[in-house]
Amino acid sequence: MELVNSRGIAWIRYDEANQTLDVAYTSSGEYRYFGVEREVYDWLARVKSKGRFLNRLVKGKYRYERLGQQPSHGVDLEKLLRDSLQPLSKDET
User: Is there a contact between 65 and 31 (Cβ–Cβ < 8 Å)?
Assistant: First the structure.
């Protein structure tokens, strides 16, 4: 993990084996970008404006996920499982 001098970014981290770039934004949380080439990370580590670099060359170009959050699919899977274990009512048989 590399702490950075940026108003909008707290730190960046790169995993070369998996080609993932993790970015901790100060206002929106931590994100992981997939399929990021080492050269992209090297440039990011060097540029003065990391936010501008990310906006122009990373965001919208690489698949990403937000870290530290459960995926939301609009469905409460736990409730569906509980409901499926309940006996059928008279009307449903």
Answer: yes
What three-state secondary structure class fits 71? coil
DSSP 85: H
**What DSSP designation does 87 have?**
P
C-alpha triplet 17, 21, 25: angle, nearest 5° = 155
Report d(CA 15, CA 5) in Å as an integer: 21
pTM: 0.71
Phi then psi for 20, rounded to 5 degrees?
-115, 140
Amino acid 76: pLDDT:
64
Residue 2 and residue 45 in contact, taking contact as beta carbons nearer than 8 Å: yes
Burial of 90 (0-12, 13-18, 19+ CB in 10 A): exposed
